[in-house]
């Protein structure tokens, strides 16, 4: 018998079942209060405008919720194979504790992960390793602030880079103004460029640490803590194949025959089947706070769309701005400020009818770029304030919990948010001016 | 650099092994570890492994997860069972990391702090704890081990203190606490 064959590990102490990690802070209560307020306001608005709720619910985008929930569940399956921790540990080791490299590597990892998962899940997946790493290398307060500001903005750009990355992108994909492939081939390069610009800009502002050897030791100790972690390749391989097939179906299957949410559900069903056959436990935990928030925003958007206000707004804009390029830039500016003030969810839901209206009239020949402009402006707005980003408050509470940086919140993020917003909007506007 | 959490997560010998590869970084951890000679740690781990194998016990009860020693025992094709007591003050994430960080090739079982597996008896098992043997006086172990040894000192078999550093050595300022005289009935030198 070889050494490898006799490995048998018995754990007499089962790990506690993972509980939903709702932050026990005031922000959680505020978030639930906000959801209740949006549901109530939507219902009151619909009733006072004489719009039957049945009609509102008829145009409700259930498919967005289905894709969001299913992709989060799919993520659980992939995370449980141990691949994310493996990649994060390898990246930490490659960085050798160099602060600049840590920012580049984890920024890139966050971009890739956010492109496939919703931002909250992406942040939750990567944060544990980041926390262990940063605690080990003991960065300065200034670095910690810059680092998390970059991570938050990159989670937004990553989410916008693919049609399944985040809520606004899913709304665009299901709206019919563009297709999966058309969105992907345009959005991916634009957001890679934006991410590279953000990371490069902040990396140049990091002071070099003089204690490189100690940082390398810290990373080595981190590696020692994960040295024998295994990746369940037997399960990971079929899950990746299924995900690729889902991508192909999203790209090439006609949406009226095989709608995107159906592809997601079918893919997940096969993935669960694979995990069951491999004897893996299937974790059915999802963050329902995020789902509830998005459900509330969708309802509000559905009510507002039923009132016809946004069509009138689009008509007013088209009357006053005749140049299609300027019209699109004006819509981008309004959308990004709305996303900054009211966060990505409501802005994405509310402004979608305006974008759809433009695609049907003044910018009918540029619908794919309208989708990108719309996504980029939502994305830029999401980076403006801490509350604008989907994962903003979660990230803040996690940093507080990890005792990495006391008071990383709205105030301390503001200046980084303004810079990130400006960089993102400038690049998006530059691209639109160049191509439309 | 605070390495106290790492000491209780991967064990004293693994930390020494990592530190010995970066002599330039020793100053940063010197308040937690006595001086380490680069070649000494590997030789010590090898010697401990040989001694443990020679003990001819079927169960080794580790008071802290000594990953480096487990790796070495696996390489030596030791066929006994390693029991690791998990400190109760370890948070959930650290505990998950400890469970997942066990080398291939060795039978391992985790138990709660203060409990024993039924198969562990004075005739077939031995308790192992890493520590510092300074010049005279008491021995020093990490606080989690100290708490656990106060529970396990009633074990009637052998309770061995591994002398992890070249004795006699000065006791570091942080991360260690003195062991009671009846915690151990034997010291294993490399």
Description:
The complex is a heterodimer of chains A (436) and B (190). Chain A has one domain (57-435). Chain A is built from 19 helices and 1 strand. Chain A has helices at 26-48, 53-58, 62-79, 83-95, 99-116, 119-137, 141-161, 167-175, 180-203, 212-226, 233-252, 260-277, 288-307, 309-320, 324-342, 344-360, 367-382, 392-401, 410-435, and one strand spanning 8-11. By secondary structure, chain B is of the alpha/beta class. Chain B has one domain (4-188): Translation initiation factor eif-2b, domain 2 (Rossmann fold), CATH 3.40.50. Chain B is 34% helix and 19% strand. Chain B has helices at 4-10, 12-20, 26-29, 40-55, 67-75, 92-100, 143-152; strands at residues 59-62, 81-86, 107-112, 125-131, 140-141, 158-163, 177-178, 186-188. In chain B, the strands form 2 sheets. In chain B, strands 3-2-1-4-6-8 form a 6-stranded parallel sheet, sandwiched between helices. In chain B, strands 5-7 form a two-stranded antiparallel sheet. In chain B, helix 1 (4-10) packs across helix 2 (12-20). Chain B is globular and about 45 Å long. The interface between A and B is large, with 31 and 43 residues.
Q: Work out the helicity level of chain A.
A: over 70%
pLDDT < 50 runs, ≥5 residues of chain A: 1-7, 17-23
Number of helices of chain A: 19
Number of strands of chain B: 8
Major β-sheet of chain B, in short? 6 strands, parallel
**Average pLDDT of chain A:** 82
Order of helices and strands of chain B: HHHHEHEHEEEHEEE
In terms of DSSP E residues, the strand content of chain B is 15-25%
The pLDDT mean of chain B sits at: 89
Name given to the CATH architecture of chain B: 3-Layer(aba) Sandwich
Most strands sheet of chain A: none
Instruction: Show the largest interface.
Output: A-B, 31 and 43 residues
State the helical fraction of chain B: 25-40%
Rg of chain B over CA atoms, rounded to whole Å, is 15 Å
Distance between the termini of chain B: 28 Å
Strand content of chain A is under 5%
